[in-house]
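Regression check, (~{Z})-2-methylbut-2-enedioic acid case 334:
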Amino acid sequence: MAFDAAPTEDLLERGYLDVDIDPRLDLFEEIEKLKKEKNAIILAHYYQEPDIQDIADYVGDSLGLSQKAAWTDADVIVFAGVHFMAETAKILNPTRKVLLPDLKAGCSLADSCPAPVFRKFKEQYPGHIVVSYISCTAELKTLTDICCTSTNAVHIIESIPEDQPIIFAPDINLGKYLQQKTGRQMVLWHGTCQVHELFSHEQIVKLKQRHPDAHLIAHPECEPHILEMADFIGSTTALLNYTVESDAQVFIVATESGIIHQMRKHSPHKTFIPAPPDNISACNECPHMKRNTLEKLYVCMKYELPEIVLPDWIIEQGRACIDRMLEISARAGL
Ligand code: CIZ
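Current build output:
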């Protein structure tokens, strides 16, 4: 069999190149070689599998990843994350080639807010400005005034004059959390993330009984009844920092379980327990994030496919809301 033969499968149908890889290859070494050869940078989200996090040049949340994508001078940005994140990198740095190992790595939250439907929704609220969580499509960003991530969302809402009405999209749980934190009433779009809405209140209570000293740490995309129980609520970066700084030794982690890889690396002597999902769901892993594998990463870098290509109008009109977010974040020292 010829390994590494030129890709023949229909990329669009599969979402990735289907190539037989020589099993004798050390993919870590090969990927390092490709990075140098192509002047490529690998940006990986905290929810990626451990091998991908370990080979990445930068691992972080959407804010950090956007900042890196905007400022990099690499010729190729390899985005190990989901589709909207790679689109954001392309919008911020359109002259670079942006690759995503699997084009079908989507996002349930982004899918919950289709731009044409949102446009009609927005028309019902004249005079409102739109704040969108970065977990939305590039097209939705063209209908957005300011983007936010969970790291900077409170700062973004607080930067808006108090008498200015706001529509917040697409995550209803994050929206409710922000209303509570900032005291601002907002018109909320009813979208959710499939991972953060499956945690089981009952199972977490049982787990807390078994580990009475454990701290429950939760992402604000979780449902309010989970957040009410939490000892700490924050973005992935904030959760990671909390586990480093806290005196607690055991943490129940209510977000996608990929972040636990970094938590263990930063605090090898502490214990991290993924918050249990309901009885129907098998685990709290994002099926989209986990579509990317080390093999797909290697093939994608070798053939420089699949590539993120966006129409010029999306890049032009989608950029302003991300730039505003980055400006407000910089002012807040984030
Ligand atoms: O914005 C992100 O990166 C996500 C999905 C979570 C977080 O809080 O960092």
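Comparison notes: The chain has a mean pLDDT of 95. The domain at 109-194+315-331 is CATH 3.40.50.10800 (Rossmann fold). No diff flagged against the previous build.
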